[in-house]
Amino acid sequence: MLGFIARRFGLLIPTFFGVTLLTFALIRMIPGDPVEVMMGERRVDPELHAAAMERLGLNKPLYLQYIDYVGALLQGDLGESLRSRTSVWKEFTSLFPATLELALAALLFATTLGVLAGVIAALRRGSLLDHGVMGLSLTGYSMPIFWWGLILIMVFSVWLGWTPVSGRIDLLYDIPPVTGFMLIDTLLSGEEGAFTDALMHLILPAIVLGTIPLAVIARMTRSAMLEVMREDYVRTARAKGLSPARVVFVHGLRNALIPVLTVLGLQVGTLLAGAVLTETIFSWPGIGKWLIEAIGARDYAVVQNGILLVACLVILVNFTVDVLYGLANPRIRHQH
Amino acid sequence: MRKNLLVRGLAAGLALSSSATFAASNLVYCSEGSPAGFDPGQYTTGTDFDANSETVFNRLVQFERGGTRALPALATEWEVSDDGLTYTFKLRPGVKFHTTDYFEPTREFNADDVLFTFQRMLDKNHPFRKAYPSEFPYFTDMGMDENIAKIEKLDDLTVRFTLNHVDAAFIQNLAMNFAAIHAAEYANQLLEAGNPEQINQKPIGTGPFVFSRYQKDAQIRFKGNDEYWAPEEVKIDNLIFAITTDASVRAQKLRANECQITLNPRPADIETLKADPNIEVPSQPGFNLGYIAYNVTHPPLDKVQVRRALDMAVDKKAIIDAVYQGAGQLAVNGMPPTQWSYDESIEAVPYDPEKARQLLREAGVEEGTEITLWAMPVQRPYNPNAKLMAQMIQADWAKVGVNARIVSYEWGEYIKRGHAGEHDAMLIGWTGDNGDPDNWLGTLYGCDAVGGNNWSYWCDEAYDKLIKQATKITDQAERTELYKQAQQRLKDQMPISPIAHSTVYQPMRTSVEGFQISPFGRNSFYGVTNER
Amino acid sequence: MDITQSFPAAEPVVHYPSPTREFAASFMRNKGAVGGLLFMLLLVCCAAFAPWLAPHDPLEQFRDHLLTPPMWQEAGSARFPLGTDELGRDMLSRLIFGAQLSLLIGLASVVFSLIPGILLGLIAGFSPTRAGPFIMRLMDIMLALPSLLLAVAIVAILGPGLINTIFAIAIVSLPSYVRLTRASVMTELNRDYVTASRLAGAGTLRLMFVCVLPNCMAPLIVQATLSFSSAILDAAALGFLGLGVRPPTPEWGTMLASARDYIQSAWWVVALPGLAILLSVLAINLLGDGLRDALDPKLKNAA
Fold first, then answer.
1. What is the pLDDT averaged over residues A191-201?
2. The pLDDT of residue B381
3. Which end of chain A is more exposed for a tag (fewer CB within 10 A), N or C?
4. Which among B10, B135, B412 is the nearest to A36, CB-wise?
């Protein structure tokens, strides 16, 4: 088993360097440079342009720039944003908790409802309820999420006034960022009502981001449940006269959840990436929006290292899922 | 149920919270984006200046609120020598720099601070600039790096600037945001501590608001400066910028009272906002111009006749109705009517597709000739929706037998390729910097600007002579005469088709009092109150 | 989707139906899939006969009728059944012509990623020691980048436009085809029939395309349908971020993006293109589900 893990891990190293090379090349292939973009409609003084490019180290030959970049990376230096001149790591750590909080909330929403919907559909298989639930989940799966977000804001925030429009909290609450997770920070700050307010801000974006995972989980749970419920041990449990609820939840769902968890792990990567659109619509200060804007501003350091950090996260999550899947493989289980 | 939760939350906060936030006078401003930093000299955009120069800092002179006139600020008065080359400023006594948890001033504002501010921008070998290399693009762009010969401290409260040549707009330039006065003492402290980059992250100035905290893409918090030299202008205890990139979301937040004032609404939202009894939407004619630049080096656009025909073929009235939703003013000249020296005698070219078609045929332009029409991918103050505008112009030109292919690049690339002159016709525009006519007629259409802001690549000897001459005189009447001639020439040669001056709207809650719309598009909150 | 469960009961019958008929029968019993198919047919008809079906030219600007509401609303008129957009263009006509674009984008990006994807997958599968690992690492790298960001960067490099949008989407969806093909190839290569062909002297190319590939097609077809629908969504997302096709081309995502400004004042310009996207993606997904169940019941649990 350890050998398996080591081998899989060894494969990650070339992937890591491949990602650095790819992002380095991609951002430099986009025409226009950071100094020009910053000047907008304004004239770019050639002398000033040259001075800025020199300060940023962008006048060196490309291969030297790449060597510098990887050299700095290996020393743990992620460089500083060309635009704001603050360290990329600092910007990442100030924005990432927002994305993570949103992604976790979305995942929580998707898993709770998705598993519930899947179990119900599986138990009432072929009924109108099953078709209804599955139809809905396929609709969720087909949703253009930016449109979905706009519609939800329109209905719940503008027409009904139930939820706030955007942001993470009413800014009249002065919440110092301790952990970066607004729900925790509001509790720590002890300001009355702040937690509720933060929660209200989280609801719509979490629903929007969670819609597609919800659909995937519901479908997965249903088919896994159907499979498991046909297994001999469930039949035996039933024959022994155990209560239906016990059969479903203890024997059925517990085993059905293994493939569901795998899918869940894979969704984490998708979620982090999919946050781009959700963050744009809800003015959510996360990394998706940060990266899109950095591409526009040709902020080379942010694009390279920001994408690298996200890629590492995705790689690590997939790696963990891979390993766990290996561990949870039925064949391994059955040997015991 | 409506808003119940939110209201309950707020009420609870009012009743129980020990934090001063709810009891004090607050103003939340929905701003457009994250500022890149807090050192005004390094940046060029309004988003940056609203967050740094207008709040934390003062300039020697400042534009009057809501106008283009430069008034005394950190300088109380100044004298200009007869040859127009030396400016002597008397500085305001008793001005205090901000006291924060990262800096405590030991002295008041004096000539050393002015010297530090300008020397740093002028001198590449300035110790602070050595330690923290930076460029000052706006300073360079306005030609000040070349024109300022020296700056001297005559005494603690007197400073003298000596110029290389006469610059009629010098005082106006000093009022611009990049010329914000830094604290020399703070800079030295940073230099000694070895972290000069803090000047861009934790600003210290003399301005009406004290920097407190910034969270990228989320918020910037300021506190009212209770030691401000004009105490009557600071009426807000907490000023909060809620960073909200999307214009529609800003409008919705304003309606939900999540912020009390915002900027740049989409034209389509203005009616809805006006209909809300708690919101007012004051407006002002914009100090901007959206136009089509014809690349005169690309045939058939090298012929004046063709440019005139294309101009005539565009139904500008319809564009103002659809793209600006009526929130714009038909543009006639190369600068807005609120700019002094604007030539009222020039008349708009009437919409006349028949005549345009005829002119084109005479010029030998065949039916179905293809040209490219570039459309910006972003919303700008002078053009709320360039892609929409391009589609209308395309339809108009199709009627006179010119097929325009709409081209759009991502903004950075658009600029790059535009500078290189790859376009035939291109949508672009400008917002005034300092209220001087040269900032339009010279900056945008002069020979020196070819390859820069002169997107038409148009270099006309007669025109260039007029505008060059006008910058060397300080007498306004004489300058006006020259600029009027220049405008005639511009209209005659038509390197651009002026489309519209977009009206600036500033939606705010009715609780906000005292806000003045700046012609330069700045958002300043001194002198503003919010009775919540 | 679940009807196929009853199939094992038919095992004792000696006479097997032909695979095509079996497939058709299984597919037709799935009501959702049939619904999806019908909607798709409707969409294809719209796209094919757009010039005859559309009441107006989708590019014609009726400048006296900006933002006319749909006909059932008070201010609407029968001349513009679904209203007009911000330039007075007929919404119905634009939606009908938009079907052309969306189908084209979906189809073209599937073709452009399916063919290289299969080729790379075959090579990776047939050469597990040399080219294979290299190709697979490359795919890992692409999968590690958030797909939308990758697409945005590609469009920024190539410049916005229809063809470039298609390329960006095709490149982004390449890895899933490569992985899928390689996985199927690896399974098939261990089968007896492959060994038999090899012993009979079949060359590598023949083995690849004639023996192995046809047996890997079922999952690929399913994947193609699914990525057809996600291509439409991705194109819409790119359009929404302002990087879509060139105006005035009536593409649904671009229509939605430019209509966003009017969400408070004119709901139809926002709601209708979104609805069109949702319905066609839903139809394709229903179709994909049906295909999967009918082609290969084993795959049912794979998604």
1. 89
2. 83
3. C
4. B412
Nearest-CA distance A102 → chain B (Å)? 15
Find, in chain A, the residue whose alpha carbon is nearest to that of C283.
A142
Residue C230 has pLDDT above 50, yes or no: yes
* Identity of residue B228: Y
B-contacting chains (≥3 CB pairs under 8 Å):
A, C
C-alpha angle with apex B286: B281 to B288, nearest 5 degrees?
145
**Rounded Cα–Cα distance for residues B490 and B334 (Å):** 7
Stretch C101-124: mean pLDDT: 91
CB under 8 Å to C296, separation ≥6 — which residues? C218, C219, C222
Domain extent listing, chain A: 88-333
Which parts of chain B have pLDDT scores under 70? 1-23, 532
- Measuring CA to CA, how many Å separate C124 from each of C15, C120, C132, C180, C196? 39, 6, 4, 11, 21
Indicate the residue type of A152.
L
Task: Tell me, yes or no, if A316 comes closer than 8 A to chain C by beta carbon.
Answer: no
Q: Does B6 touch chain A (CB under 8 A)?
A: yes
Q: Which of C147, C156, C285 sits opposite A142 (nearest CB)?
A: C285
Name the token pair of A320: 């963990």
Secondary structure element (H or E) that encloses residue B90, with its range: strand B86-91
Write down the mean pLDDT value for chain A: 84
Helices marked H in A230-286 — which ranges? Answer: 232-239, 244-246, 254-282
Q: Is B407 on the interface with C (CB under 8 A)?
A: yes
Which residues 235-274 of chain C have a CB within 8 Å of chain B?
Answer: 242-243, 246-248, 258, 260-266
Give CA angle at A239 (A237, A244), nearest 5°: 60
| Residues of B whose CB is below 8 A from C63 | 315, 318, 321-322
Q: Is C277 exposed, middle or buried (0-12, 13-18, 19+ CB in 10 A)?
A: buried
| Residue B71 per-residue DSSP state | E
User: Measured between alpha carbons, how far is B439 from B344 in angstroms, rounded to an integer?
Assistant: 19
pLDDT tops 90 at residue A320: no
Q: Given this model, what pLDDT does residue A336 score?
A: 36
- Asked if B417 and A31 come within 8 Å (Cβ–Cβ), the reply is yes
Cα–Cα distances in Å, from C50 out to C43, C58, C93, C96?
A: 10, 10, 8, 6
pTM for this model (two decimals) = 0.86
The answer to whether B306 touches B397, Cβ cutoff 8 Å, is no
Q: Which amino acid is at B219?
A: Q
Superfamily of domain A88-333: MetI-like (1.10.3720.10)
User: What pLDDT, on the 0 to 100 scale, is given for residue A335?
Assistant: 39
pLDDT in tens, A124-157: 888 888 888 888 988 998 988 888 988 898 888 8
**Nearest Cα residue to B66 out of B529, B517, B515:** B517
**Residues C168, C238 contacting (CB under 8 angstroms):** yes
Inter-axis angle of helices C31-48 and C91-126, to 10 degrees?
110
Euclidean distance between CA atoms C268 and C277, whole angstroms: 14
- Give the whole-angstrom CA distance, residue A72 versus residue A160: 52
What was the pLDDT predicted at B190? 96
Q: Is C180 left (phi over 0), alpha (psi -120 to 50) or beta?
A: alpha
* DSSP codes of every residue in B402-450: EEEEEE---HHHHHHHHHTT--SEEEEEEE-SSS-THHHHHHHHSGGGB
